[in-house]
Write a structure and sequence with these properties.
The chain is built from six helices and twelve strands. It is α/β, with parallel strands linked by helices. It has two domains: 72 residues, Hypothetical PUA domain-like, domain 1 (Ribosomal Protein L25, Chain P, Beta Barrel), CATH 2.40.240.20; 166 residues, Alpha/beta knot (3-Layer(aba) Sandwich), CATH 3.40.1280.10. It is elongated and about 60 Å long.
């Protein structure tokens, strides 16, 4: 019997009974057609007794409109990378941005800031922008459910690239640039602290960053790095760079 993982945005405690959220109910009951007595795994992205993990639970009182779960055993589960990655991603149109967010979460990214740049080609503001950010966060939650992560990355409010570049940070700052002189895989190991390994990774949109944006990134201590001799699409660049960083400094390899 399949045991789906479900995110619930509320406090979870062993031996309690709670109602499923509308989203969780729709997925578990309407889509997966689970019934009374079926097992599910639930998590909320928060620590329980100072540890990350998930709860085993059982469905009860399933009706056409609602269902409850009895929360059972808490299982400690920490599959988070020792490398903390904050992705500054130039906004790309539609499915490309969603794909980048989904896969970057599966690869271990911790924080994502969508960036408006000269070439991003996407004009969003006000209510439309807020709805898009809410949709992106749902995609991230779904990626956590699928990949087994118990920590839920955050999509920060979308800002202009200039605002992101000036934010104070002690992280290693990297800008993926097809004309850079140094490979991302050849970064010295002592670039990162073993006790607090953090990276701010800048990825341009479709069409890349312009010369002025690259110059401003360099002014704020972003190091230009290269992935290879070919020009990559924005979604390919982000995911390849994250994988390379996890191989070099994180939990892959």
């Amino acid at each position: 019997m399949r045991n789906p993982r479900i995110y619930l945005d509320q406090t979870l405690t062993s031996n309690e009974t709670i109602s499923l959220s509308d989203d969780a109910f729709g997925h578990i009951v309407r889509v997966l057609r689970l019934k009374d007595g079926d097992s599910v795994t639930i998590f909320n992205g928060q620590e329980y007794n100072k540890q990350l993990g998930e709860f085993q639970a059982k469905l009860i009182n399933v009706t056409k409109k609602r269902a409850e779960v009895v929360i059972g055993e808490f299982i400690t589960k920490n599959n988070e990378s020792p490398l903390n990655i904050h992705l500054g991603q130039g906004i790309s149109p539609g499915d490309r941005m969603e794909y980048t967010l989904q896969k970057s979460v599966e690869l271990g990214v911790n924080t994502i800031t969508p960036l408006f740049t000269e070439r991003c080609g996407v004009k969003l503001s006000g209510e439309r922008l807020q709805k898009r950010i809410e949709q992106w966060q749902k995609i991230i939650i779904s990626a956590c459910e699928q990949s087994g992560r118990c920590a839920v990355p955050i999509v920060k409010p979308a800002i202009h690239i200039d605002e992101w570049l000036v934010q104070q940070s002690n992280a290693l700052k990297l800008n993926l640039h097809p004309k850079a002189q140094h490979s991302i895989m050849n970064l010295p190991a002592d670039y990162l602290s073993e006790d607090d390994a953090r990276v701010r990774l800048l990825i341009g949109p479709e069409g890349g960053l312009n010369d002025d944006e690259i110059a401003k990134a360099n002014e704020h201590n972003f190091v230009d790095v290269l992935l290879g001799p070919r020009v990559l699409r924005t979604e390919t660049a982000a995911l390849t760079a994250i994988t390379a960083l996890q191989c070099r400094f994180g939990d892959i390899g």
